[in-house]
Specification:
This protein is mainly alpha-helical. It has helices spanning 2-5, 10-25, 31-58, and strands at 60-62, 68-70. It contains three helices and two strands; from the N terminus they run αααββ.
Length: 71
């Protein structure tokens, strides 16, 4: 549970998401474990989307006058 409270980078979250997908693709996983992995994956995906949104809001554009402006 402490893993959920730690702030991961976007790259770390993508790696965690990939691990979760691999776990879901194994044949040995029980239904309960699959549900838990799915729930964890959706939580990670939500965090990725929030991180991407924050980055998009910080993206700067260069105006015709050569001034950086936030989008």
């Amino acid at each position: 549970m402490s893993e959920e409270k730690k702030e991961f980078s976007l790259e770390e979250n993508f790696a965690r998401l990939e691990e979760t997908i691999e776990k879901l693709e194994t044949e040995e996983i029980s239904l309960e474990e699959a549900f838990q992995a799915y729930s964890t994956g959706m939580s990670i995906l939500k965090e990725c989307n929030e991180q991407i949104d924050r980055v998009e809001k910080k993206v700067l554009k260069l105006s015709e006058q050569g001034v950086l402006e936030e989008l």
